[in-house]
Design brief:
Keywords: DNA-binding, Phosphoprotein
Shape: elongated
InterPro entries: CheY-like_superfamily, LytR-like, LytTR_DNA-bd_dom, Sig_transdc_resp-reg_receiver
CATH architecture of the largest domain: 3-Layer(aba) Sandwich
Helix content: 25-40%
Organism: Paracidobacterium acidisoli
CATH superfamily of the largest domain: Response regulator
Protein name: DNA-binding response regulator
CATH topology of the largest domain: Rossmann fold
Distance between the termini: 56 Å
Strand order of the largest sheet: 2-1-3-4-5
Number of helices: 8
Radius of gyration: 21 Å
Largest sheet: 5 strands, parallel
Number of domains: 2
Strand content: 25-35%
Oligomer: single chain
Structural class: alpha/beta
GO molecular function, one term: phosphorelay response regulator activity
Length: 256
């Protein structure tokens, strides 16, 4: 049996990486890649789908809204893709549906697909309304007790690499991207600085300016420029501007 499969994720690198991993499974036929919830809804309402990989957190319409709008009867067997670990993992384990955490690992994907194949064979792939509600509630609880990004998946020339968050010295806004500064290297990440700031642990990272986020462990010196702005000097020698609100956040971080 060939599974007509759709990937829904707003991150191109994440979609490409998952597509590459799925190519190793002969019974998976990727028929569409959707970059947001609206595209996913339109596709799911127009064509039959055997398997859906659905990102939990997307701008404007996340995975929750996609599920609620498509309705249980039209929902294909779904494997969620999430950056959250605690309550979300518990909800999936209890309620007979699988999940993958980013970045997706080949062995974990294989396990999820095998689990889903068994469910399809037993005709139990679809959730009951009660199960769906429990899963959504568990996911929302996971977002409320949010876990922070521990690593980033970025391109490095012709390959992709993982960078641990603690290795990042500072982050610079670059239009719709962010540049992760790691030593003398810079890596582009397709995410706005506002969204990325929300995913970072505030005990380690502080947004000191509208265009920069700094790793607190990399700050060597702090300078005040008048009553409002200032600058910070990092252990790498880099000097970053600091706004009034950024200085306030930095002061608050020192009290934690």
């Amino acid at each position: 049996m060939t599974l007509q499969t759709v990937i829904v994720d707003d991150e191109p690198l994440a979609r490409d990486f998952l597509r590459m991993l799925l190519a190793e499974h002969k019974d998976i036929q990727l028929v569409a890649q959707c970059q947001n919830g609206q595209e996913a809804l339109a596709y799911l309402q127009s064509k039959p789908v055997d398997l859906l990989f659905l990102d939990v957190q997307m701008p404007e319409m996340g995975g929750f809204e996609v599920i609620e709008r498509i309705g249980l009867r039209s929902l294909p067997p779904t494997i969620f893709v999430t950056a959250y670990h605690e309550h979300a993992v518990h909800a999936f384990d209890v309620h007979a549906i699988d999940y993958l955490t980013k970045p997706v690992e080949s062995e974990r994907l294989a396990t999820a697909l095998e689990r889903l194949r068994r469910k399809i064979a037993a005709e139990t792939a679809l959730l009951t309304q009660e199960q769906l509600t429990a899963v959504l509630n568990g996911l929302r609880a996971g977002q409320e007790s949010k876990s922070y990004a521990s690593r980033f998946f970025v391109k490095d020339g012709e390959k992709e690499i993982l960078i641990a968050s603690e290795k990042v010295d500072w982050i610079e806004a670059a239009d719709y991207y962010c540049c992760l500064h790691v030593g003398a290297r810079g890596y582009l990440l397709r995410e706005s600085i506002a969204d990325l700031s929300d995913r970072l642990d505030p005990r380690r990272f502080v947004r000191i300016h509208r265009s920069s986020i700094v790793n607190l462990d990399r700050i060597r010196e702090i300078y005040r420029d008048g009553q409002s702005e200032g600058s910070v000097v990092l252990t790498t020698g880099a000097t970053l501007r600091m706004s009034r609100s950024g200085r306030q956040k930095l002061m608050e971080s020192g009290r934690q």
